[in-house]
Amino acid sequence: MTSEFPLIEPTWHIAHQTAHTVAAALHSRRVPVADGVGQVLATDVRSLIDLPYDTTSAMDGWAVGGSQGPWRVVDGAALAGHVSQVTLTPKDAVLIATGGVVPSGTFGVIRREFTEVFGDGADSFVRATHESEPFANSHVRPCGDEARRDEILVPAGTRLSPAHTALAAMAGHDTLEVRCAASCEILVLGDEVLRSGIPRSGQVRDAFEPQFAAYAALLGLEVSGFRFIPDTLEATTQALATSSARVVISTGGTAAGPKDFLHTALETVGAQMVIDSIAMRPGHPNLLARRGDQFFVGLPGNPLSASLGGMLTLVRPLACGLLGMELPELTSALTSTSIKAPAHDTRLVPVTSQNRSGTFFVTELPWLNSGMMRGLANADAVAVIPPGGVGEREVVEVLALAW
Protein backbone atom coordinates (compact mmCIF):
# COMPACT_ATOMS: atom_id res chain seq x y z
CA MET A 1 0.00 0.00 0.00
CA THR A 2 1.66 3.24 -1.11
CA SER A 3 0.97 6.94 -0.91
CA GLU A 4 2.90 10.08 -1.76
CA PHE A 5 3.09 11.01 1.90
CA PRO A 6 1.43 8.48 4.22
CA LEU A 7 1.24 9.75 7.79
CA ILE A 8 2.45 7.14 10.24
CA GLU A 9 1.10 7.84 13.73
CA PRO A 10 0.61 11.62 13.36
CA THR A 11 -0.50 13.77 16.26
CA TRP A 12 -4.23 14.05 16.91
CA HIS A 13 -4.36 17.62 15.57
CA ILE A 14 -2.60 16.68 12.33
CA ALA A 15 -4.86 13.65 11.82
CA HIS A 16 -7.98 15.74 12.49
CA GLN A 17 -6.86 18.39 9.99
CA THR A 18 -5.69 15.88 7.36
CA ALA A 19 -9.02 14.05 7.33
CA HIS A 20 -10.65 17.38 6.45
CA THR A 21 -8.21 18.63 3.81
CA VAL A 22 -7.90 15.31 1.95
CA ALA A 23 -11.61 15.43 1.02
CA ALA A 24 -12.68 17.51 -1.97
CA ALA A 25 -16.17 18.99 -1.80
CA LEU A 26 -18.79 16.97 -3.66
CA HIS A 27 -20.88 18.20 -6.55
CA SER A 28 -24.00 20.21 -5.86
CA ARG A 29 -27.67 20.03 -6.84
CA ARG A 30 -30.58 22.43 -6.75
CA VAL A 31 -33.54 21.67 -4.47
CA PRO A 32 -36.78 23.48 -3.63
CA VAL A 33 -36.23 25.84 -0.72
CA ALA A 34 -38.65 23.83 1.45
CA ASP A 35 -36.46 20.72 0.98
CA GLY A 36 -33.29 22.49 2.09
CA VAL A 37 -33.49 21.81 5.83
CA GLY A 38 -30.58 19.61 6.89
CA GLN A 39 -28.73 20.13 3.60
CA VAL A 40 -25.39 21.94 3.29
CA LEU A 41 -25.27 25.06 1.15
CA ALA A 42 -22.96 24.90 -1.86
CA THR A 43 -23.25 28.63 -2.64
CA ASP A 44 -24.02 31.70 -0.58
CA VAL A 45 -27.66 32.68 -0.19
CA ARG A 46 -27.89 36.35 -1.17
CA SER A 47 -30.95 38.48 -0.80
CA LEU A 48 -32.64 38.97 -4.15
CA ILE A 49 -34.48 42.03 -2.84
CA ASP A 50 -34.27 44.69 -0.19
CA LEU A 51 -35.78 42.99 2.86
CA PRO A 52 -38.42 44.09 3.59
CA TYR A 53 -39.11 45.14 0.02
CA ASP A 54 -41.30 48.06 1.14
CA THR A 55 -41.43 50.32 4.17
CA THR A 56 -44.25 48.74 6.15
CA SER A 57 -46.15 48.99 9.40
CA ALA A 58 -45.23 46.80 12.37
CA MET A 59 -48.65 47.34 13.99
CA ASP A 60 -52.37 47.52 13.27
CA GLY A 61 -53.33 51.13 13.80
CA TRP A 62 -53.22 54.52 12.13
CA ALA A 63 -50.55 56.06 9.91
CA VAL A 64 -50.43 59.78 10.65
CA GLY A 65 -48.80 62.59 8.72
CA GLY A 66 -47.59 64.70 11.62
CA SER A 67 -46.63 64.65 15.28
CA GLN A 68 -49.62 66.62 16.61
CA GLY A 69 -53.25 65.49 16.45
CA PRO A 70 -56.04 65.13 16.13
CA TRP A 71 -55.80 63.91 12.56
CA ARG A 72 -58.57 63.77 9.97
CA VAL A 73 -59.36 60.27 8.71
CA VAL A 74 -58.86 59.99 4.93
CA ASP A 75 -59.91 57.23 2.57
CA GLY A 76 -57.45 54.66 1.26
CA ALA A 77 -56.66 52.15 4.01
CA ALA A 78 -53.14 50.64 3.81
CA LEU A 79 -53.83 46.91 4.06
CA ALA A 80 -51.36 44.04 3.69
CA GLY A 81 -51.06 43.05 0.04
CA HIS A 82 -52.22 46.43 -1.25
CA VAL A 83 -50.37 49.69 -1.85
CA SER A 84 -52.20 52.80 -0.71
CA GLN A 85 -52.21 55.71 -3.16
CA VAL A 86 -52.71 58.23 -0.34
CA THR A 87 -50.22 61.00 0.36
CA LEU A 88 -50.65 62.20 3.93
CA THR A 89 -50.48 65.82 5.05
CA PRO A 90 -49.42 66.60 8.64
CA LYS A 91 -53.08 66.56 9.73
CA ASP A 92 -54.14 63.36 7.93
CA ALA A 93 -54.51 59.80 9.22
CA VAL A 94 -55.24 56.56 7.39
CA LEU A 95 -56.08 53.10 8.67
CA ILE A 96 -53.12 50.70 8.34
CA ALA A 97 -52.65 46.98 8.98
CA THR A 98 -49.56 45.11 10.10
CA GLY A 99 -47.49 44.59 6.96
CA GLY A 100 -49.27 47.34 5.09
CA VAL A 101 -47.10 49.61 2.95
CA VAL A 102 -46.67 52.94 4.72
CA PRO A 103 -48.23 55.78 2.66
CA SER A 104 -46.16 58.69 1.41
CA GLY A 105 -45.91 61.48 3.96
CA THR A 106 -46.23 59.24 7.03
CA PHE A 107 -44.67 60.61 10.22
CA GLY A 108 -45.31 57.45 12.22
CA VAL A 109 -47.85 54.77 13.11
CA ILE A 110 -49.95 54.84 16.26
CA ARG A 111 -50.99 51.39 17.44
CA ARG A 112 -54.74 50.84 17.46
CA GLU A 113 -55.07 50.44 21.22
CA PHE A 114 -53.51 53.88 21.74
CA THR A 115 -56.05 55.73 19.58
CA GLU A 116 -59.60 56.99 19.78
CA VAL A 117 -61.81 57.74 16.77
CA PHE A 118 -64.47 60.43 17.05
CA GLY A 119 -66.75 62.34 14.71
CA ASP A 120 -68.72 60.86 11.86
CA GLY A 121 -68.31 60.17 8.14
CA ALA A 122 -66.19 62.75 6.37
CA ASP A 123 -65.66 64.52 9.71
CA SER A 124 -64.05 61.54 11.48
CA PHE A 125 -60.88 62.18 13.43
CA VAL A 126 -58.26 60.17 15.30
CA ARG A 127 -56.45 61.25 18.41
CA ALA A 128 -53.70 59.57 20.43
CA THR A 129 -54.61 58.35 23.90
CA HIS A 130 -51.07 57.67 25.07
CA GLU A 131 -48.38 60.32 25.34
CA SER A 132 -45.64 58.01 24.01
CA GLU A 133 -47.09 57.93 20.49
CA PRO A 134 -46.60 58.94 17.78
CA PHE A 135 -42.90 59.55 17.44
CA ALA A 136 -40.80 59.79 14.29
CA ASN A 137 -41.10 56.48 12.39
CA SER A 138 -42.94 54.84 15.28
CA HIS A 139 -43.80 51.21 14.43
CA VAL A 140 -42.40 51.58 10.92
CA ARG A 141 -40.22 48.86 9.37
CA PRO A 142 -37.91 50.60 6.89
CA CYS A 143 -37.27 49.10 3.47
CA GLY A 144 -34.03 47.08 3.64
CA ASP A 145 -33.98 47.09 7.44
CA GLU A 146 -33.17 43.36 7.59
CA ALA A 147 -31.04 43.07 4.46
CA ARG A 148 -30.08 44.93 1.32
CA ARG A 149 -30.28 43.41 -2.13
CA ASP A 150 -27.30 41.09 -2.85
CA GLU A 151 -26.29 40.96 0.81
CA ILE A 152 -25.11 37.51 1.96
CA LEU A 153 -27.71 36.07 4.31
CA VAL A 154 -26.41 32.51 4.75
CA PRO A 155 -22.83 31.61 3.74
CA ALA A 156 -21.88 28.51 1.78
CA GLY A 157 -20.97 25.56 3.99
CA THR A 158 -23.86 26.18 6.39
CA ARG A 159 -26.09 23.24 7.32
CA LEU A 160 -29.55 24.69 6.79
CA SER A 161 -32.02 25.03 9.65
CA PRO A 162 -35.76 25.75 9.27
CA ALA A 163 -34.99 29.40 10.04
CA HIS A 164 -32.43 29.52 7.21
CA THR A 165 -34.91 28.23 4.63
CA ALA A 166 -37.57 30.67 5.85
CA LEU A 167 -35.10 33.53 5.47
CA ALA A 168 -34.13 32.36 1.98
CA ALA A 169 -37.79 32.26 0.93
CA MET A 170 -38.44 35.74 2.34
CA ALA A 171 -35.45 36.98 0.34
CA GLY A 172 -37.02 35.71 -2.89
CA HIS A 173 -35.48 32.25 -3.38
CA ASP A 174 -37.51 29.34 -4.75
CA THR A 175 -34.58 26.92 -4.87
CA LEU A 176 -31.21 26.49 -3.18
CA GLU A 177 -27.88 25.03 -4.33
CA VAL A 178 -26.83 22.32 -1.86
CA ARG A 179 -24.07 19.72 -1.69
CA CYS A 180 -24.85 16.21 -2.85
CA ALA A 181 -24.93 13.74 0.00
CA ALA A 182 -21.90 11.49 0.45
CA SER A 183 -22.91 7.84 0.50
CA CYS A 184 -21.60 5.74 3.37
CA GLU A 185 -21.44 2.03 4.13
CA ILE A 186 -20.55 0.61 7.54
CA LEU A 187 -18.81 -2.76 7.91
CA VAL A 188 -18.56 -4.49 11.29
CA LEU A 189 -15.70 -6.99 11.28
CA GLY A 190 -15.52 -9.79 13.83
CA ASP A 191 -16.92 -13.24 14.58
CA GLU A 192 -17.50 -12.41 18.24
CA VAL A 193 -20.10 -9.68 17.57
CA LEU A 194 -23.68 -10.51 18.60
CA ARG A 195 -26.45 -8.36 17.08
CA SER A 196 -29.23 -9.15 19.57
CA GLY A 197 -29.89 -10.86 22.87
CA ILE A 198 -27.57 -11.51 25.81
CA PRO A 199 -23.93 -12.21 24.88
CA ARG A 200 -22.34 -15.40 26.16
CA SER A 201 -18.73 -16.09 27.07
CA GLY A 202 -16.45 -15.05 24.22
CA GLN A 203 -19.11 -12.80 22.64
CA VAL A 204 -19.72 -9.05 22.76
CA ARG A 205 -22.96 -7.28 22.03
CA ASP A 206 -22.71 -5.04 18.97
CA ALA A 207 -22.41 -1.37 19.95
CA PHE A 208 -22.01 -0.03 16.42
CA GLU A 209 -25.27 -0.71 14.58
CA PRO A 210 -27.36 1.11 17.21
CA GLN A 211 -25.23 4.27 16.94
CA PHE A 212 -23.07 4.62 13.84
CA ALA A 213 -25.77 4.84 11.16
CA ALA A 214 -27.46 7.63 13.10
CA TYR A 215 -24.08 9.21 13.93
CA ALA A 216 -23.09 9.21 10.25
CA ALA A 217 -26.44 10.77 9.30
CA LEU A 218 -25.85 13.56 11.85
CA LEU A 219 -22.58 14.27 10.05
CA GLY A 220 -24.39 14.60 6.71
CA LEU A 221 -23.51 11.18 5.32
CA GLU A 222 -26.17 9.06 3.61
CA VAL A 223 -25.89 5.50 4.94
CA SER A 224 -26.52 3.07 2.11
CA GLY A 225 -25.69 -0.16 3.91
CA PHE A 226 -24.64 -1.86 7.15
CA ARG A 227 -22.91 -5.25 6.89
CA PHE A 228 -21.45 -7.72 9.39
CA ILE A 229 -18.32 -9.36 7.97
CA PRO A 230 -16.68 -12.63 9.14
CA ASP A 231 -13.12 -12.46 10.46
CA THR A 232 -11.30 -13.72 7.37
CA LEU A 233 -9.04 -12.01 4.85
CA GLU A 234 -11.23 -13.19 1.99
CA ALA A 235 -14.44 -11.82 3.49
CA THR A 236 -12.82 -8.50 4.46
CA THR A 237 -11.30 -8.04 1.00
CA GLN A 238 -14.58 -8.93 -0.71
CA ALA A 239 -16.51 -6.44 1.44
CA LEU A 240 -14.13 -3.60 0.59
CA ALA A 241 -13.97 -4.51 -3.09
CA THR A 242 -17.75 -4.60 -3.52
CA SER A 243 -18.61 -1.40 -1.68
CA SER A 244 -19.51 1.52 -3.96
CA ALA A 245 -20.05 4.03 -1.14
CA ARG A 246 -18.00 7.24 -1.12
CA VAL A 247 -17.10 6.62 2.55
CA VAL A 248 -16.61 3.08 3.86
CA ILE A 249 -16.37 2.84 7.64
CA SER A 250 -15.18 -0.42 9.15
CA THR A 251 -14.81 -1.45 12.77
CA GLY A 252 -12.18 -3.89 13.99
CA GLY A 253 -9.19 -5.41 12.26
CA THR A 254 -7.00 -2.28 12.38
CA ALA A 255 -4.24 -3.59 14.66
CA ALA A 256 -1.68 -6.35 14.03
CA GLY A 257 -3.34 -9.30 15.72
CA PRO A 258 -3.73 -12.80 14.26
CA LYS A 259 -7.20 -11.95 12.88
CA ASP A 260 -6.60 -8.32 11.89
CA PHE A 261 -6.76 -8.34 8.09
CA LEU A 262 -7.76 -4.78 7.23
CA HIS A 263 -4.33 -3.50 6.15
CA THR A 264 -3.80 -6.44 3.80
CA ALA A 265 -7.34 -6.16 2.42
CA LEU A 266 -6.91 -2.46 1.71
CA GLU A 267 -3.66 -3.11 -0.12
CA THR A 268 -5.34 -5.86 -2.15
CA VAL A 269 -8.13 -3.57 -3.37
CA GLY A 270 -5.63 -0.85 -4.32
CA ALA A 271 -6.26 1.67 -1.55
CA GLN A 272 -3.54 4.16 -0.63
CA MET A 273 -2.85 4.82 3.02
CA VAL A 274 -3.29 8.41 4.20
CA ILE A 275 -3.10 7.94 7.99
CA ASP A 276 -1.92 4.76 9.68
CA SER A 277 -2.61 4.97 13.43
CA ILE A 278 -2.69 8.18 15.48
CA ALA A 279 -0.72 9.25 18.54
CA MET A 280 -3.84 9.37 20.71
CA ARG A 281 -5.75 7.47 23.39
CA PRO A 282 -8.20 5.89 23.12
CA GLY A 283 -8.27 4.98 19.47
CA HIS A 284 -4.59 4.65 18.59
CA PRO A 285 -5.04 2.06 15.76
CA ASN A 286 -7.26 4.18 13.50
CA LEU A 287 -6.54 4.51 9.80
CA LEU A 288 -7.66 6.48 6.78
CA ALA A 289 -7.06 5.27 3.21
CA ARG A 290 -8.36 6.22 -0.20
CA ARG A 291 -8.93 4.68 -3.61
CA GLY A 292 -9.60 7.45 -6.12
CA ASP A 293 -12.46 9.47 -4.66
CA GLN A 294 -13.48 6.66 -2.28
CA PHE A 295 -12.39 6.81 1.37
CA PHE A 296 -11.89 3.97 3.84
CA VAL A 297 -11.92 4.74 7.56
CA GLY A 298 -10.78 1.87 9.74
CA LEU A 299 -11.90 2.10 13.36
CA PRO A 300 -10.80 -0.08 16.28
CA GLY A 301 -13.16 -2.73 17.57
CA ASN A 302 -13.57 -1.17 21.02
CA PRO A 303 -16.62 1.11 21.22
CA LEU A 304 -15.07 4.18 22.86
CA SER A 305 -11.94 3.97 20.71
CA ALA A 306 -14.07 3.79 17.58
CA SER A 307 -16.34 6.65 18.65
CA LEU A 308 -13.60 9.07 19.73
CA GLY A 309 -10.62 7.95 17.69
CA GLY A 310 -12.52 7.21 14.51
CA MET A 311 -15.87 8.94 14.21
CA LEU A 312 -14.85 12.14 16.03
CA THR A 313 -11.26 12.37 14.82
CA LEU A 314 -11.51 11.10 11.23
CA VAL A 315 -15.08 10.62 9.97
CA ARG A 316 -16.46 13.93 11.20
CA PRO A 317 -13.79 16.15 9.57
CA LEU A 318 -13.85 13.96 6.45
CA ALA A 319 -17.63 14.47 6.12
CA CYS A 320 -17.20 18.21 6.64
CA GLY A 321 -14.61 18.33 3.85
CA LEU A 322 -16.84 16.39 1.44
CA LEU A 323 -19.74 18.75 2.16
CA GLY A 324 -17.68 21.94 1.87
CA MET A 325 -18.03 22.73 5.57
CA GLU A 326 -15.36 24.16 7.85
CA LEU A 327 -13.33 21.91 10.13
CA PRO A 328 -15.17 21.54 13.47
CA GLU A 329 -13.98 24.32 15.73
CA LEU A 330 -12.08 23.73 18.94
CA THR A 331 -13.05 25.99 21.84
CA SER A 332 -11.39 26.31 25.25
CA ALA A 333 -12.30 25.76 28.88
CA LEU A 334 -10.66 25.36 32.28
CA THR A 335 -10.26 22.01 33.97
CA SER A 336 -12.04 21.60 37.28
CA THR A 337 -9.51 18.93 38.32
CA SER A 338 -6.26 17.57 36.92
CA ILE A 339 -6.60 15.17 33.95
CA LYS A 340 -3.96 12.61 33.07
CA ALA A 341 -2.65 11.73 29.60
CA PRO A 342 0.17 9.49 28.32
CA ALA A 343 3.60 11.07 27.97
CA HIS A 344 3.58 11.04 24.16
CA ASP A 345 -0.09 10.76 23.14
CA THR A 346 -3.05 13.12 23.07
CA ARG A 347 -5.93 11.86 25.16
CA LEU A 348 -9.57 12.48 24.24
CA VAL A 349 -11.68 12.68 27.38
CA PRO A 350 -15.49 12.79 27.54
CA VAL A 351 -16.40 15.62 29.92
CA THR A 352 -19.29 17.55 31.34
CA SER A 353 -19.12 21.33 31.17
CA GLN A 354 -20.36 23.97 33.57
CA ASN A 355 -20.63 27.73 33.21
CA ARG A 356 -19.36 29.43 36.38
CA SER A 357 -19.89 33.18 36.15
CA GLY A 358 -19.04 33.24 32.45
CA THR A 359 -16.10 30.82 32.60
CA PHE A 360 -16.56 27.26 31.36
CA PHE A 361 -15.09 24.42 33.40
CA VAL A 362 -14.89 20.80 32.25
CA THR A 363 -14.92 17.74 34.44
CA GLU A 364 -13.62 14.31 33.44
CA LEU A 365 -16.20 11.54 33.58
CA PRO A 366 -15.62 8.01 34.86
CA TRP A 367 -16.10 4.86 32.74
CA LEU A 368 -13.50 5.79 30.11
CA ASN A 369 -11.98 2.40 29.35
CA SER A 370 -11.69 1.92 25.55
CA GLY A 371 -14.38 -0.79 25.66
CA MET A 372 -16.89 1.34 27.62
CA MET A 373 -19.59 3.72 26.41
CA ARG A 374 -21.06 4.97 29.70
CA GLY A 375 -18.72 7.96 29.98
CA LEU A 376 -19.41 9.22 26.46
CA ALA A 377 -23.13 8.61 26.89
CA ASN A 378 -23.13 11.06 29.81
CA ALA A 379 -20.81 13.65 28.22
CA ASP A 380 -21.70 16.96 26.60
CA ALA A 381 -18.25 17.56 25.06
CA VAL A 382 -14.81 16.03 24.57
CA ALA A 383 -11.64 17.59 25.98
CA VAL A 384 -8.42 17.29 23.96
CA ILE A 385 -5.76 16.69 26.60
CA PRO A 386 -2.13 17.21 25.46
CA PRO A 387 0.56 14.60 26.09
CA GLY A 388 1.57 14.54 29.76
CA GLY A 389 -1.81 15.73 31.01
CA VAL A 390 -2.93 18.97 32.63
CA GLY A 391 -3.43 20.28 36.14
CA GLU A 392 -6.43 21.84 37.84
CA ARG A 393 -7.69 25.14 36.33
CA GLU A 394 -5.56 24.78 33.20
CA VAL A 395 -6.85 25.78 29.77
CA VAL A 396 -7.68 22.86 27.48
CA GLU A 397 -9.19 22.56 24.02
CA VAL A 398 -12.74 21.26 23.80
CA LEU A 399 -14.61 19.75 20.88
CA ALA A 400 -18.41 19.80 20.85
CA LEU A 401 -20.24 16.56 20.15
CA ALA A 402 -22.29 16.19 16.98
CA TRP A 403 -25.51 15.63 18.93
TrEMBL record:
Family: Belongs to the MoeA family.
Keyword Protein biosynthesis: no
Annotated catalysed reactions: adenylyl-molybdopterin + molybdate = Mo-molybdopterin + AMP + H(+)
Role, per record: Catalyzes the insertion of molybdate into adenylated molybdopterin with the concomitant release of AMP.
Source organism: Populibacterium corticicola
Protein name (Swiss-Prot/TrEMBL): Molybdopterin molybdenumtransferase
Top-level taxon in the UniProt lineage: Bacteria
Signal peptide residue numbers: none
Cofactor: Mg(2+)
